[in-house]
Amino acid sequence: GENVEQHPSTLSVQEGDSAVIKCTYSDSASNYFPWYKQELGKGPQLIIDIRSNVGEKKDQRIAVTLNKTAKHFSLHITETQPEDSAVYFCAASMTGTASKLTFGTGTRLQVTL
Amino acid sequence: GAVVSQHPSRVICKSGTSVKIECRSLDFQATTMFWYRQFPKQSLMLMATSNEGSKATYEQGVEKDKFLINHASLTLSTLTVTSAHPEDSSFYICSARSGLARQETQYFGPGTRLLVL
Fold first, then answer.
1. Which of A79, A113, B44, B99 matches a 20 to 30 Å C-alpha distance to B73?
2. Distance set, CA B109 to CA B2, B55, B60 (Å)
3. Contact A100 B108 (CB under 8 A)
């Protein structure tokens, strides 16, 4: 089955700096890679996703890159703000009726003033 | 759009009782919903896949007789924790899959915190 590794487990950046979280996956058949943000006591919120037919996707301060050859994908947050502080999870799956997400172990991001 | 709700948000029950958690997709139909369990500071653990009109598919190690799942409509799935014990205390989160084939996206509910005394 799919295995997703995520690094780092914790990340502290100063407000305004950039943050990068990296994930690798094992199953070359995976073609869908979402990122979720989870605040304390809440459910995960989808913030951006990428499918294997593209290499990069951007939404305002958030971007995701995908390297299918190396089987890794990354989340980039620019101009970080205190409200970006949360736990971020990457995930991977195939698409289709039988698909299910395999999650990384999470990255706790702390944005300091 | 793509809002998933859960009810209740938190529940405290006595050991041996059963607890039902509801998961609803509010603005889309979901033939497939998922139930996860999350322990503090850990990732999400998939418990089962809930398919509308058919039996749920449970992950290895998850007791289907203890965690009853019913997906009676395209917008509602329920998880019943039967004969709950303190070790069942956890954060339970559902998700619903939205979208057409190959473009589907999974949206999560806000979670239900269960405390069994």
1. B44
2. 10, 21, 23
3. no
